[in-house]
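Appendix B. Raw example, untouched.
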Amino acid sequence: TCFIGLQFERTLGMSYWKSRIAAVLLSFLVHVCFYETSAVELLKLFSEEYYFRFQADKYSAWLGMVGGLLWGKVGEYMNWAHGFENEQRRQMASIVQCIVGVALIAFWYIFFGSISDKYTYNPIHPYVFVFAVIGWLMVRNCTRYLTECHSTLLEFLGRNTLETYVLQFHLFMCHNVQYIPVVIPGSDKDGSAAMKFLNMLLCGCVFLSMAVWARKITVSTQLSVVDLVKHIRGTTESSVTQVLPQQSSGEEARPATNGEELVELTKAVPASGHVA
């Protein structure tokens, strides 16, 4: 999309905004023509799972771009809602914001979040979960106290997000990513709710511990590779050469004196490749 916009600007002489908007509209048109016609059946050549996943998220990226464009308006609203010099008006704005946020979360859960069928809810999730997200942000920032607070647990989970996302498919879920392993006897589908809960806690603790361990290994591997690359580059670039003063053919070799220092070429060479 960026390349097309740049070409519109260079070849057609369009302005910056006109060329970018035209590129976005063209990309969106191609996107719609692919997903809303029989061309989308080509995804089945790879797998049915690819077909399902791409269909479920086909417009989520566009919603993300719209959200990014409107993010500045959110900041303007926050400045307006909490910028009242009148304390009573500020408290009223906070209360209304909190109520609206809770209402948005309830709206999402009652009409969409309570759907238990995966194949019914997943296709609409990217387009309806925005209500819950906006509601949570409104509740989270309805007062200065809540805005300045943070959850240590969520911060810890956030540092290991990538590993938890990847390992959930290999360690935490099974049977077409709809169930978790049954470790404790009596915690299967016919077991009691208490046993199922304990089994979930046990599997979750093992899963989270492995995710933290995987992150430590990932960081260690990354640092090791970086150090190895630096070492290899340093070995090839730091060949040291000693250059003695030129001697005439008639002179005998003599050791360097204080006025004739040896010149050492190290890896600290300027970017131009020449030694001063």
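End of appendix B.
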